[in-house]
């Protein structure tokens, strides 16, 4: 199983953004998730060796927080190309991105489901 399995983007667009999805990602925590999630995000941010990779961004309009993880994939080469794109070792998570519920925030070239 290789290549991009997502039907949500034309893979030809992947050369246009500089592999932003492979350099960082964001996780959403709704206010209804409770204070434990904010506490956990703050704990991650305070960890000595990895805390600098995490950014907490409040989104008042949506009522929650984005936890942004800034840590480029180790398989990105100097040209922002995936060294294992056609390899069986490429994670399924990468092959399926962007996901059906992804937004333009996740991928600026998201065009809806392809045929």
Spell out the key features of this protein.
alpha+beta, 3 strands, single chain, three-stranded antiparallel sheet
Quick summary:
This protein has 115 residues and is an alpha+beta fold.
Topology:
Layout: E1 24-30, H1 35-46, E2 54-59, E3 64-70, H2 92-96
Antiparallel strand pairs: 1-3, 2-3
Describe this protein's structure:
It is built from 2 helices and 3 strands; from the N terminus they run E-H-E-E-H. With 115 residues, the chain is an alpha+beta fold. The chain has a domain at 33-96. The protein starts with 23 loop residues before the first strand and ends in a 19-residue tail after the last helix.
Secondary-structure-based class equals alpha+beta
Largest sheet: 3 strands, antiparallel
Question: Which strand order spans the largest sheet, edge to edge or round the barrel?
Answer: 1-3-2
Instruction: Indicate the percent of residues in helices.
Output: 10-25%
Describe the oligomeric state of these chains in a short phrase. Answer: single chain
Span of the ends, CA to CA: 19 Å
Order of helices and strands: EHEEH
Radius of gyration: 16 Å
